[in-house]
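As the work plan foresaw, the team has encoded backbone shapes as discrete tokens. One protein thus recorded appears below exactly as we store it.

:::
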Amino acid sequence: MDKTNILVVDDDHDIADLVSIHLMGEGYNCYKAYNGKDAINIFEREDIDLAILDIMMPGIDGRKVCARIRESSTIPIIMLSARDGETDKVEGLINGADDYVTKPFNTMELIARVKSQLRRYQSFGGAAEKPAGTVELENLWMDRSLHQVKAYGKDVKLTPIEFDILFLMATHPNNVFSTDEIFEKVWKEKSFEMSNTVMVHIRRLREKIELEPRHAQIIKTVWGVGYKIEA
């Protein structure tokens, strides 16, 4: 069985080396880069399954690397940052990241997040833990086994996190989900003030599937409660 390939990018050599050592200890194959240019070259040359990107790097920073990856791939992306402001986290998620870890971090926590993201991503490749299923609503069609989405008849490319959020609501039409409920059902973790994380993903989803994101017709807001998709 081929090893999972993880791209680790950080201009701090010690951090990149330490993270890579721990990941290899878990059986993963690691590619290291200490700048954005090398990271993009590795991604385009190798079959990468997950990327860990430091945000603050000289030249091509982590946000730009993330955006480049998202042009052609939905692999999980975890952002690292020495800044813990909510704006930085939201910015990273808006740029297409799936998760965000603040420095200094516990290496085992990062490994746990890597495993969680890979489980979600690899489940779309045929794993049996998630049942196949299709959803057909007025302006939305989804196929879980194929990881395909059509909105208003057009193909839409979603990351695994975005797909899970949309599929959750689409398979429970008319149910109103709070941000806490969405986080706990999709991330499979208890929600501790993670509402902004969910809201950023909802914003990204609307930009991809809605004709007019500011006047959403598929994912509707129930003010003061949460979100829903109507049958």
Remarks:
- The helical segments are 13-25, 36-45, 62-70, 86-94, 107-122, 160-170, 179-186, 195-209.
- Residues 126-131 have pLDDT under 50 and may be disordered.
